[in-house]
Design a protein that fits this description.
Helix content: 25-40%
Distance between the termini: 15 Å
Structural class: alpha/beta
Strand content: 15-25%
CATH class of the largest domain: Alpha Beta
CATH topology of the largest domain: Rossmann fold
CATH architecture of the largest domain: 3-Layer(aba) Sandwich
Number of helices: 9
Shape: globular
Strand order of the largest sheet: 8-7-6-9-11-10
Number of domains: 2
Length: about 270
């Protein structure tokens, strides 16, 4: 496989961050000619951008659940990365989703293609997520924002997820994910309908001159399912839900047990 897509939370990042063995395995694969592309729901700033630069400092990387693809430049000290492709949210549908979230008492975040990160109100969960991203959000009336590429709901166990999804505008696509560093919280990303990690990965693969059949993907979340099924070799982490494991060609150990190292060894044909 010439191209490997890597998820972040639960794949590259575990409860204690990125294991050293993961970076060692990535460098070994790169020395053998493998190219990596980060594919995450996180924004292209903070910790996620640092991970992308370490994976491939001059490559294409996927953020915002597929709504943004960034092209990194030669100069690692010159932010920001250049947008390669952007899919904005339909403005009317985005505002409707914000109003719905407010009515249901949900914790909301909003993101723009230029790296803007916004929240409404204060909550320890919002603060914890900012610490995870290594980004400070600006407090703003989300209805006043334009040019959004993604909305996100930080779901607590008691939050009415089904009520929200049932009333969600059809122009928006939901993507569920979790992070081992924030147990008990689920992340519901909203992108434009038809936008996903898979659609963005198709653009990246095409730019590199390969098909998704010639690429591999390592992931652990429900928002990885579509891409795991589309690539030639899909690997699920051992900490992934059963539905994700069943969709994969191979299941690696959990992230904290050097699962990414084993996944890359299998992709490289070093494990039968």
């Amino acid at each position: 496989m010439r191209l490997v897509f890597l998820d972040v939370d639960g794949t590259l990042v575990g409860p204690r961050g990125v294991p050293a063995c993961a970076w060692e395995a990535i460098e070994e694969a790169k020395a053998e000619g493998v190219r990596f592309s980060l594919v995450t729901g996180r924004p292209g700033r903070g910790a996620a951008l640092r991970y992308a630069r370490r994976l491939d400092p001059t490559g294409l990387h996927i953020f915002e659940s597929g709504a943004v693809v960034l092209a990194l430049g030669q100069d690692l000290h010159t932010p920001p990365a250049l947008p390669f492709h952007v899919e904005a949210l339909p403005e009317g549908a985005a505002k409707e989703a914000v109003r719905l979230g407010r009515r249901l008492g949900l914790l909301l975040e909003a993101y723009t293609a230029d790296g803007g990160f916004y929240v409404e109100g204060e909550d320890p969960i919002l603060d914890a997520h900012q610490a995870l991203l290594d980004l400070k959000a600006e407090e703003e009336d989300l209805l006043s924002l334009t040019g959004l590429v993604r909305l996100q709901v930080l779901l607590r166990p008691e939050d009415p997820l089904e009520d929200f999804l049932e009333a969600l505008p059809e122009e928006l696509a939901p993507h569920l994910a979790e992070s081992p560093k924030m147990p008990g919280v689920r992340f519901l990303s909203l992108t434009k309908r038809g936008v996903s990690k898979r659609t963005a990965a198709e653009r990246v693969a095409q730019a590199y001159g390969v098909s998704l059949e010639e690429a591999a993907m390592v992931g652990d979340g429900e928002n990885d399912l579509e891409l795991l099924r589309a690539v030639g070799l899909g690997v699920a982490m051992g900490n992934a839900p059963l539905s994700v494991q069943k969709a994969a060609r191979w299941v690696a150990p959990p992230v904290e047990a050097c699962g990414l190292r084993e996944a890359l060894r299998w992709i490289g044909g070093k494990i039968p």
